TrEMBL record, chains A, B:
Protein name: Sialate O-acetylesterase
Keywords: Hydrolase
Cross-referenced InterPro entries: Carb_Esterase_6 (IPR052940), SASA (IPR005181), SGNH_hydro_sf (IPR036514)
Start and end residues of each Sialate O-acetylesterase domain: 4-224
PANTHER family noted in UniProt: 9-O-ACETYL-N-ACETYLNEURAMINIC ACID DEACETYLASE-RELATED, ESTERASE, PUTATIVE (DUF303)-RELATED
Pfam entry (one): SASA
Taxonomic lineage of the native organism: Bacteria, Bacillati, Bacillota, Bacilli, Bacillales
UniProt organism field: Halobacillus salinarum
SUPFAM superfamilies: SGNH hydrolase
Length: 282, 282
């Protein structure tokens, strides 16, 4: 199995409202839990109880479409509100993410990192020292994980920043975006992922669910083609529409019914009947 | 800060329905996320997307009542469906839990383990080898964490097992309970915690929310008095009633409002007004 490490702050973890998009259930997408793999369900990067939709699910879904029968795992290590200084190479977040990735690598091949961070550094001229810190971090991950050429996808901060709500304080997000773009264009095996056209929750800082689905597709475009994605993709709306109509496999349907039962939305008899029906179906 | 390690299977993680009990918000209770501490919110042991109420929150709440002004952290490492063999000393779950506890111990003093496991071993005469495996596991945790005398609270499996739903297959839960009791009574610094009178979700295997609140109180009684708890506590119902009426601190009220805002239940203006009102209150 291949795996992908998610690091950064809240927009990598995901804060899109769960109820705003169709759920992605896919028996070929896993998430790391207690060092092992479980079938993915969102919120998958549960750094906070308010975690929601991030870019990883649509990224992984798009990956499975290109790799029929194969599986992918996501390693959720993004941490809400974290600054680049909190991602220092000797900091807890970095050491913990390396630990999680190392557990994951016992049973998977790490093939990339998705990075999205910078809102917490979009003020007070922090952009001036951001590049060195980011390069040092990426170098450290590649060294510690023994993956010297590991591809790193670098997502741009939302263009909606600096305006309203919690996003208002991110007055220097354009400068951070310049650094992110520079690093993506100059550092080996790094690709830039634009946030052009993506929109925010009412808080003005967290990307909304639909935007996160699109962002994940762009991350995957960058990853799969190993190229910079500097514009929105033509397929985004169509893909989201199509994904919402994807027919679930038997295992996925059982997963959905088991979820309902575990949450008390079905009684045992109803649940048993539903499972029998699924098992007897083609 | 003191900390407590949660290990075992789903009833330690928690599967009680969230909506069935009053939420516990307490700025002196933390949970480990990405190697660091965050203010606790349930579900706190997010091994599955269906995770719910477990014993840890009422345990920690009771702890804070006895330690005014001090803080406690919980380290969630319980894994749904795990058997004692999956908690082998060289297994992923064990190594991961030790890793998480080690991160936590950088910033806290580990003062105990809460253990609840055995449903997955309540069939096929697995009880015959359970004792040795459990003793070996406890010894390993104490050694690896350099806490040779670490107290371990051992919760009994629910008396409702073996009857209905998913619990029906746990036909040998009484034998496992005998082993759990024996280990608790013979191994140093181990205490037994009865599940007498506690009830299940409709699945017949997962303890319901109210029962988990009571169970947490029993775990705390065992921990704080270093004694076996072999009967229900007189204070259980009264405590739950009182906890639901506990007045929140300013920080806790801000946490609640921030949660609502993050989930899209308040707009930014409403949120700002609520926060101002809280800040201006006594």
């Amino acid at each position: 199995m291949k795996s992908i490490l998610l690091i950064g702050q809240s927009n990598m973890a995901g804060r899109g409202f769960i109820e705003d998009v169709s759920s992605i259930y896919n028996e070929h997408i896993n998430m790391l839990r207690n060092g092992r793999w479980q079938m993915m369900a969102e919120p998958l990067n549960f750094d906070r109880h308010i975690s929601g939709i991030g870019p990883a699910a649509s990224f992984a879904q798009a990956w499975t479409e290109d790799h029929p029968g194969e599986s992918i795992g996501v390693i959720p290590c993004a941490e809400g509100g974290s600054s680049i200084d909190e991602w220092a190479i000797d900091g807890l977040l970095t050491r913990h993410a390396i630990s999680e990735a190392t557990f994951a690598m016992e049973t998977s091949e790490l093939v990339g990192i998705l990075w999205h961070q910078g809102e917490s550094d979009s003020h007070g001229e922090r952009y001036k020292t951001y590049e060195d810190k980011l390069l040092s971090l990426f170098k450290h991950f590649r060294e510690e994980l023994n993956t010297p050429d590991l591809p790193i996808m670098i997502g741009e901060l939302g263009h909606y920043l600096g305006e309203v709500g919690f996003g208002k304080s991110a007055v220097e997000y354009k400068q951070i975006n310049q650094v992110l773009s520079k690093v993506a264009h100059t550092e080996k095996n790094c690709c830039f992922v634009t946030s052009k056209g993506l929109t925010a929750n009412p808080d003005g800082i967290h990307m909304d669910s639909i935007s996160q689905r699109k962002f994940g597709l762009r991350y995957y475009e960058a990853f799969s083609k190993q190229k910079h994605v500097v514009d929105s993709l033509d397929i985004e709306n169509e893909w989201i529409e199509k994904a919402s109509k994807r027919e679930l496999t038997k295992n996925e349907r059982i997963f959905v019914e088991s979820t309902k039962f575990a949450l008390g939305q079905l009684n045992f008899e109803e649940f048993s009947i539903h499972i029998s029906t699924i098992n007897e179906s083609k």
